Amino acid sequence: MGGVMDGVVVHRRIRAALVLLLGVASLMLLGAPSANAHAVLSSTTPTSGQVLPTGRDLDRVELRFDEPVEAALGSLQVVAADGHRVDTATVRHLGGAGARVEVGLRPRLPDGSYLVVWRVVSADSHPVQGSFTFSVGRPGPVAQRAAGHTAASLGPALGVARFVGYAGLLLLIGVVAFLVLCLPTGWSDPGARRLLWFATVLAAAGTASGLCLQAAYDVGGGWTRAVDPATVGALLDTRLGHAHLVRLAALTGLWVVLLRYVRRPRPMILALVVGALLVCIGSVTIEGHNGVSPAWITVGMVHFAAAGTWLGGLAVLATVVIPSCRRAARQPAPIPGPGPSSGTHPVPGRGPAQGTLAVLERPTAQALPWVPVRRFSVVALTCVATLAATGVLQAVRQVPELAELKATRYGQLLLIKIALVLLMVAGAAVSRAALNRRRLSDEVRAVALTRSVALEAALAIIVLVVTSALVATTPARAAYRPVQERTLHAGPDSIQLTAVSSGPRTLDVHLYAFGSDGLPTEVTSIEVSARPSGGGLGSVSLRLLQAGSGHFLADHVLLPHTGTWLLTLRVRTSEFDSYPATTSLTIR
Questions:
Q1: How many CB atoms neighbour CB 122 within 10 A?
Q2: What are the residues whose beta carbons fall under 8 Å from the beta carbon of 289, sequence distance 6 or more?
Q3: Of 214-223, 360-369, 463-472, 556-565, which range is least confident?
Q4: CA-CA distance, 379 to 203, in Å (whole number)?
Q5: 288 close to 27: Cβ distance less than 8 angstroms
């Protein structure tokens, strides 16, 4: 009776844990906040280049962004020409607003120029930084840089931690999927158990170290900041920190379950394992570029799960299944002797085949453990199709223009990843062909599979390295800022317009006037205004400065939002002659 009651209690605890895990996964999917590609600095007080009158009591420097940012993980420093800081070192959100950040200043700043260096973490977990200057009284020398900087080795170390965490989680997904779909009797296999435990420890170690290193990297500090409780605690208050905590909790629970129940997994245990893996996959997706909406989170989760099932399954094939096939292929098996009709009888007390001259033959492919390999072949094919579909969806979203593939680092990494995956698919095709060749002996087939799977596994490691770099790279749609050139006609003259993007939603506009003979010509003035093509906002006037004969420019024009904007020019060629011209620009 006591044993029955204990079993009931255990089942209740397992059900409660399963419900908790599924609930956490649902909250992660439904409650994920929206995030843009990167936060953009909208305005500052004082403004860049502003000269304040002597004696003005400036008590703070304020930054305003287009979306909430994390100030606790960043820095905001104001440095005098001699390199000493003149701020109070207390960075806070102004009025509790996440998009406004300020730092106090020491009273009565001396005349001269001051360098403002800022660094914050945007909603997509990427650090964003910049600088500008202002002056008091009159402009003077400017400090070279602020004190303190990120350790050069922190970035590569963070990349390694991210790789280790992803590798462990993908391996864990693949091993569980293989045992559920292809080898249900393999849970007690020592090799499979070692893979499960190793993958869990690898994923947990990568997640924990990545959390600490990300905190140090975000604040722009050195290695000591990675073990600073205040720094790590600040990261734990962010979406990225929450995702890491949830993943660590799920991996810890998974370790306990696998350690105790891995030999005899019941349906409830399997459901618990799958639920924990879903939580881990969801936490990875939320902290990346797909963490913008439930739909894209779902796409990201399906993509990651398919990748883990394929890549992790290769590890099971290489370390557990194929070695078993090769061992079986080398061992001859006796065929039972003839039955009673042959006139030969077995010796009493011996096995059914003993006492006869048994013919030794190699077992057929059906007698060898090829069934899991054939099942995985179908599973891998399904995963490849799923990866292709979800990968195309994500690529179109992150790289909306083909030119971005070549012009941005994100696009270049994506092309490399696609090429490597195609090579893996080719390797998988070779494996499938070797498996289906009936004329090959079992030993030759096993050797061919070993080589092709080893090639796939090596390519998979490279793909994972590229993916780790891809996750930390600004998406192409945010990084791509091509030069835009237009030729406009204003009466007898033509205006060559060149717009160079100097940052998100920011342009440097150059205007060159040419006469009917094609040579540079003088014009009295040029006025430019911009308005969004879809309406809804009024016109924004561009402040033009004359930089030379027939050359006008507007530096760092910051527009309210991205999209297509219409530029209206009025070119005055004389006191009485004025000509309009209109064109459009894409603001990114």
A1: 21
A2: 37, 124, 398, 471, 475
A3: 360-369
A4: 23
A5: no
384-410 pLDDT per residue, tens = 889 888 888 887 777 777 778 888 888
Phi, psi (rounded to 5 degrees) for 324: -65, -40
Express each pLDDT in 505-542 by its tens digit: 788 888 898 988 888 888 888 888 888 877 666 678 88
Sorted by sequence, the CB contacts under 8 Å of residue 382 that are 6+ apart come out as: 306
> Mean of the per-residue pLDDT values for the chain?
76
The topology (CATH level 3) of 482-587 is Immunoglobulin-like (2.60.40)
Fold held by 41-136 = Immunoglobulin-like (2.60.40)
Sorted by where each begins, the domain ranges of the chain are 41-136, 152-287, 295-334+362-480, 482-587
Q: Helix axis angle, 154-181 relative to 442-471, nearest 10°? A: 140
Give the whole-angstrom CA distance, residue 578 versus residue 437. Answer: 81
3-state secondary structure of 423: helix
The C-alpha angle with vertex 325 and arms to 178 and 311, in degrees rounded to 5, equals 30
Give me the pLDDT at residue 248, please: 93
Domain 41-136 shares a fold with domain 482-587: yes
